[in-house]
Design a protein that fits this description.
alpha+beta, 6-stranded antiparallel beta sheet, 5-stranded mixed beta sheet
């Protein structure tokens, strides 16, 4: 604990060690200090609250450091950057560019990625409204930007600290004995239940803080593979539940598939199917 002691944040209401505050905020005194998270997200009081969607806000400019790859996913390179205009000025961001072999399909991928994010927002908002846990789960919502030099399009979203993966789309699970490991598995199960067995939210990854968790790059699996190459379809859903073990955050009335089977090898990375394998005949929501 810091030598400064603890103080209740005037915005989120959490009793936090002084390390959670900037020197400027701490100097404002009890009843006026806001923690770093609330300052970054523009939360002025507990009446504002944290929305499920975590966006770029009104940001219009950023600087991306492409001298080195910060992280590498199944189909995208990730670079660090800094917002240079708008409400997030000075904060860190990430830019996600598709690997060269996927660039010719980027328009379709962007559309399906954004559709998956919107479906995730709907499911997670419903989860938060049910108060299954005392923390809130938020979703990073990217925007499609265009590189002014190369002309390449990329996804831009706020940076997440202490990034980690909780589960994958093939049934892999992180340590199921941790709080967030169990919560994320329950969220995946809930997504199947609340959608009437039509969808499964998985491949959950992101970071945690005192307010809750922030997830990014979610996968939605559907019966007709409508959400792109990471949507493993009906077999993916059945495979997921073959490996899923309910925990105390799963409700006994939540539905499951009538039968399960191991169709895919469990792996921590995101499993992908061929780009020409999914069906374009989308169902209505």
């Amino acid at each position: 604990m810091s030598s400064w002691g603890c103080r209740v944040c005037s915005a989120c209401g959490y009793d936090l060690d002084s390390d959670y505050y900037s020197r400027n905020q701490w100097s404002k005194g009890v009843g006026y200090s806001r923690c770093r998270t609330c300052v970054q997200e523009g939360i002025q009081s507990d009446e504002d609250g944290f929305s499920t969607a975590r966006t770029n806000k009104a940001t219009t400019r950023c600087t991306i450091d492409k001298s080195s790859v910060f992280a590498d996913g199944s189909c995208r390179h990730v670079y660090l950057g800094t917002y240079t205009g708008g409400d997030r000025t000075g904060q860190m961001c990430v830019a996600k560019y598709f690997h060269d072999e996927f660039e010719h399909l980027e328009e379709d991928y962007f559309e399906r990625d954004m559709n998956a994010v919107q479906k995730t927002l709907k499911i997670v908002t419903q989860w938060n409204q049910n108060d299954f846990i005392s923390k809130i789960i938020r979703v990073n919502v990217p925007q499609v930007w265009q590189d002014s030099r190369s002309g390449s399009k990329f996804l831009l979203e706020p940076y997440i600290e202490d990034y980690q993966k909780f589960n994958s789309n093939s049934g892999w699970v992180t340590n199921g004995r941790t709080f967030w490991g169990r919560v994320m598995q329950a969220l995946s199960h809930y997504s199947y239940h609340v959608s009437g067995g039509q969808f499964l939210l998985c491949d959950l990854q992101g970071g945690v803080n005192h307010v809750g968790a922030i997830i990014s790059d979610p996968v939605i699996m559907s019966h007709n593979k409508r959400f792109g190459v990471t949507d493993l379809g009906r077999q993916g859903i059945i495979n997921f539940f073959h490996h899923h073990r309910c925990n105390k955050y799963c409700q006994p009335e939540w539905t499951r598939p009538k039968y399960t089977c191991a169709y895919f090898e469990r792996r921590q990375g995101t499993t992908m199917i061929r780009a020409d394998y999914y069906d374009d005949d989308d169902d209505d929501d």
